[in-house]
């Protein structure tokens, strides 16, 4: 039976896009306390079901798919620019395709403005009116208002008019930054994106017997099953290793592995991969905050996801990417090792104008990662890194990083790294890594 919290989430998820909700309304509708309703609405916001806007309220929005992450709703724009809504509240749930800066004559501006756009402009009432007629929402900068006739038209067309105190350049930068952050989120694949859902997961009850395990094994070919109670809470895992030596009449609860390693849906796939390698397990139950089973992921699921990440188009560039994109790979004379060369840019320095400790760590990690990939050892997860010393490396200096394998096995590796500048050793580190086969 679903809890009050789950019932509220199901109710919110069933509402039509654009529906406005409140704590008091939910409490009355589901017959729960306002505190319970408030907590459920906050979780719905985290899940992307709703968006809460100051002075407007909470609105059901379209749940975004991973491939559509780079688009924003008008409700999100209001929060990004600290704006307030002058009209067209009913359209806040809609998604904008692009934004247009209205720094030109009306005729020229309208050639670039169409349905699903957001026109960013100052107190030009005629521009507000024409943009709405073209199917675009309006963001008024400088804290200005607009005419009542324009607000009325916005309400009729369900296209938001938003006012913000920021100037046009700042607003454009803020929205660009938000879209860029969304692109980075798109790259970070989470467990909830790849799991086999609960409805398709085969589970066992603690009161079932080993005979049931054998039957399921013959039917599905799988040997690992989560064990759950009547409320779908995970109690344990049972595998082929657990049932060995036991009779068919033995109850599952007597042989299962209790308190198994689990993850939540928001866990990154990279973190899940590390757990699987470290714990030596093939499958992971995915649970919610109440330890209720949401689904399962396997090692094969994780490896496929890691491969997809590398092929994703249109993703945001993180600071690590900015730092390591300057890397040039050079084979040394012996052909036994690689040297990774880069220039120390202003972005890579600390307040003293020398390479920062964090950037040096990033460069060392990336060098080892690329080196082991070239050696067909797969991707790495850093288990431990020790930086023995790092000398000041000035801005615009050329840094050469040379990793050398000390030990390597099927799952683990030990690598020594030396960094040179002008032929002098300026840094030395040791790294222990876990290897993930691609």
From TrEMBL:
State the InterPro entries in the record.
CBS_dom (IPR000644), CBS_dom_sf (IPR046342), Diverse_CBS-Domain (IPR051257), DRTGG (IPR010766), HotDog_dom_sf (IPR029069), Ser_kin/Pase_Hpr-like_N_sf (IPR028979), Thioestr_dom (IPR006683), WH-like_DNA-bd_sf (IPR036388)
- SMART domains for the chain: CBS
Q: Which Pfam families does the annotation name?
A: 4HBT, CBS, DRTGG, HTH_24
Q: Can the keyword Protein transport be found in this entry's annotation?
A: no
Record-linked PROSITE patterns: CBS
Q: Where is the CBS domain?
A: 195-254, 256-314
- UniProtKB keywords: CBS domain
- Entry keyword annotation includes NAD: no
Q: Which domain of life is it from?
A: Bacteria
Under which name does UniProt file this protein? Transcriptional regulator
- The scientific name of the source species is Metabacillus niabensis
């Amino acid at each position: 039976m679903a809890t009050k919290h789950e019932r509220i989430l199901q109710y919110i998820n069933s509402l039509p896009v654009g529906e406005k909700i409140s704590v008091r309304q939910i409490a009355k509708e589901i017959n729960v306390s306002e505190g319970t309703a408030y907590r459920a609405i906050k979780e719905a916001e985290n899940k992307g079901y709703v968006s809460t806007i100051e002075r407007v309220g909470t609105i059901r929005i379209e749940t975004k798919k991973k491939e559509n992450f780079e688009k924003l709703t008008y409700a999100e724009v209001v929060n990004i620019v600290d704006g307030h809504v002058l009209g067209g509240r009913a359209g806040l749930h809609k998604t904008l395709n692009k934004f247009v800066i209205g720094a030109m004559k009306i005729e020229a501006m309208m050639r670039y403005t169409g349905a699903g756009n957001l026109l960013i402009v100052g107190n030009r009432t005629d521009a507000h009116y024409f943009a709405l007629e073209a199917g675009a929402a309006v963001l008024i900068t400088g804290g200005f208002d607009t005419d009542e006739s324009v607000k009325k038209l916005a309400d009729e067309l369900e296209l938001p008019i938003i006012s913000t105190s920021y100037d046009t350049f700042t607003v454009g930068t803020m929205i660009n930054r938000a879209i860029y952050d969304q692109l980075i989120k798109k790259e970070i694949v989470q467990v909830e994106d790849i799991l086999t859902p609960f409805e398709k997961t085969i589970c066992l009850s603690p009161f079932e017997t080993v005979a049931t395990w054998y039957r399921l094994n013959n039917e599905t070919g799988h040997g690992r099953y989560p064990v759950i109670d009547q409320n779908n809470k995970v109690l344990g895992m049972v595998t082929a290793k657990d049932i060995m030596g036991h009779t068919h009449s033995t109850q599952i609860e007597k042989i299962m592995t209790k308190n198994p390693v689990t993850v939540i849906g928001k866990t990154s796939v990279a973190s899940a991969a590390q757990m699987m390698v470290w714990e030596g397990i093939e499958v992971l139950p995915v649970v919610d905050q109440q330890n209720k089973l949401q689904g399962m992921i396997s090692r094969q699921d994780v490896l496929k996801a890691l491969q997809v990440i590398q092929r994703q188009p249109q993703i945001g560039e993180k600071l690590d990417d900015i730092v390591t994109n300057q890397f040039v790979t050079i084979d040394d004379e012996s052909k036994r090792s690689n040297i990774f060369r880069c220039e120390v840019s202003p972005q890579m320095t600390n307040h003293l104008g020398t390479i920062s400790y964090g950037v040096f760590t990033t460069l060392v990690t990336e060098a080892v990662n690329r080196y082991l990939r070239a050696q067909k050892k797969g991707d790495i997860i850093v288990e431990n890194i020790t930086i023995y010393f790092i000398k000041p490396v000035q801005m615009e200096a050329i840094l050469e990083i040379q990793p050398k394998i000390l030990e390597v096995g099927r799952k683990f590796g030990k690598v020594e790294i030396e960094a040179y500048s002008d032929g002098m050793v300026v840094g030395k580190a040791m790294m222990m890594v876990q290897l993930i086969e691609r």
